[in-house]
Design goal:
heterodimer; A: 141 residues; alpha+beta; 2 domains; 5-stranded antiparallel beta sheet; 4-stranded antiparallel beta sheet; B: 118 residues; Alpha-Beta Plaits; two-stranded antiparallel ribbon; 2 helices; 8 strands
Chain lengths: 141, 118
Amino acid sequence: MKKIIAIIRDEKAYQTKTLLKSIGVQYIIDSHVRGRGKQKGFIRVPDGLAIFRRDSGVHLLQHPATESFIDISGQQIQIEKVSVSCFVPKRMLIIIAEDRDVSPIVDTIIRLNKTGRPGDGKIFICPIVYSTDIEDNDNVP
Amino acid sequence: MKMIWAIIQYESTQMVIDALEKAGIHAMTRMDVTGYDVASGIPEGSIGYTDMPKSMLMIVLADNEVARAVKVIRNMVKASMKNHLVAVNHEKSRIFVTYVEDSYTIRTAETFADPESI
């Protein structure tokens, strides 16, 4: 058996769960996490001039010429350097599946969540040694 | 490829993250959990507080970087202990390392069997 840990966009979680249910996945653990990847949590807006930071509701715009920040209300904030310590809200789905089911599940998650922009997420596949229903009384190997 | 689950005290989370950044480890997932360790929370007379706030960091690294990351987390948690309340120090931190067989990046739909290029 395998454990599939998929870290995906927050807004795609409902669609993903619905689609996974339609291909026969019955048990999903879903939790709200925060994370970041190689891009360190920064999201470049399309004009390329500003860095959009999403961390616990704080939105900052950086202007490269002045090296200062303007927050949403229009006030100017002086910050010495850009902190990379920001985490983006993400959703973590944990699916326990048989070995033969791993490939279709991974394909489904990738097909729905792929947008081509940074922040799409990652999928990790880990081995599971043993699993049982709690109401069953069989012995642990 | 290995996955590190570090369950640390809530108060030392930011210090650990900053230390990992200095060591060049940026990609991680954090989640807020509750739990208790061998000290069974904070005993208060006949009752005990067992839902201690903790942070869990999940980091996936190549095999040769795991020891360095564990060392960074351990050193920083120990260093941040000095700033904590006495009650918080009853609770221990834990680091678990598990296997990762395969890893996919959704943006490029690539799999990385090569642990060097996570």
